[in-house]
Model the fold of this input.
Amino acid sequence: MKVHVYEKAWMGACVVLIIVFVSTILLTSWTMRMHPPSHMEIIDPAKVNDDPRFANPGVTVRADGTRVIMIAEMWTFIPNEITVPAGRPVTFRLTSPDVIHGFEIVGTNVNTMVVPGYVSQLSTTFQHPGEYLIVCHEYCGAGHHTMQAKLVVTGAGS
Ligand code: CUA
Done:
């Protein structure tokens, strides 16, 4: 069977593209800690406000790390502004009482979906103090484009 030279070229191009894509995934995973959150925890979306895990949304700073509890709902994050210290681990825990939202801290490796019925959890360490924009990146209705919050990362030790 004879394979046309153009067909061979396109097959070669596909193999090269696949190698580039897989290499990009592995490289960003190893060097920039870009990987999907793997936490699995369920919650009743109709009872988020009564659930002790989400009774007090906000930031708790401890010596060994910071914990942030947030609720993503149409069309805001609760709380809407959070402050965490730089240079120490921060663990985010989020859930949604209504529809699917997104949670991305622009310019960092924090990026997850917030799915009703589940608790999204991920950890990171912010190295650079400053103000960061938090956005919802899953279309969640008429107010989606207004759904944002602010993260302030303070200098280590302050
Ligand atoms: Cu919440 Cu888009």
